[in-house]
Amino acid sequence: MIELRVLYGRRALLHVAGIGAVVGCVTALSAAGGCKNSDHEPPRFTGVGGDAASSAATFSASASTGFGETKCDGALAVQGADPMDGARAIGLCTGVLAAEWVRADGSPLAQGDGGMNGGGDLTLGKGILAGFGTNVKPREGARLLALSSGAARNPTDPGFHSVTGWSKDTTVHETPAGYPKPSPACPNVMSGSAFDSVGLRLQLQPPPTAKSLAFDLNFYTFEFPGYICSSYNDFFVALLTPTPMGLTDANISFDEQGNTISVNAGFLKVCHPQQASDGKFYDCPDGPGDLAGTGFDTTEGGVSDNSAATGWLTTTAPIEDNTQPFTIQFAIWDAGDQILDSTVLIDNFRYELDASGVGTVPIPK
Predict the structure, then answer these.
(1) Mean of the per-residue pLDDT values for the chain?
(2) Which residue of 46, 141, 207, 337 sits 20 to 30 Å from the alpha carbon of 11, by its own alpha carbon?
(3) Quick check: 314 and 269 in contact, CB under 8 A?
């Protein structure tokens, strides 16, 4: 018996196997993009990287790295023209069968019509950043992925636009299956039509020892404090296919009440203490420090305490069949109008050896 660390993402998974089984699996990975289950071939995907050559290149890189961690995001451009760079930014160096920039409903991402004032560009809703603002750094590696209903940029980056509202496309965007839907915290409020959406869809082959997946996220919104439990909102979802048992839709990122990640979710802790539009007092235990330099510290109308963030959270979900590829789609959109923007940071995607249920929890500071 030997111990082999098979690298998927940047976390090494310990795989114990006989030498013949290890060699056979690595050979299959290099030749066909994934360990085979009998004669079953992984399904193909329409995004970038779905062909056999791309998959083989992805997995052969894993086989050549040896032991320890691998990193692949050190020199990625902020524009993220290649959707595979979006995967690399969140920590996925291997096991990526395909990647595609999309809208919230999964349709291909295009520039859009320029928005209400012209000059808008939906493709600026994706960005690969070395950090966010003054204090927020990647959770691993050198880069993180940003998706935004506005501009996924730091204020110092080319292409930045104020989070107070940048319209990119006047066309109503379709939402994922099951949306729009009320937040349990606001049972009588239905959000409005979707605008300015952007997302990243990935098809991934998990390692044979993986029983669950996890990733970290940090949601920023300028809808706070004035639009809690309003039809005007921004939403972030992480859609997992096949969908874990027990869920009513494919989203795996929500709070303990079932609220989709938005201004209505119960995670807003990075802010200035204040009473918000829902009548509740938010004590903001993490303070406003992580808003500094992000653009979400913008003063509007002489008031500098607009906006809030969740701080870093971790979402986990089970992998019910690690012999088969799965698809995960991250997406954000503006609901009800095209102004007051939100941004989500995503990083540190990883697989775990232990089984896990679906859930999202704060990461202690």
Answers:
(1) 82
(2) 46
(3) no
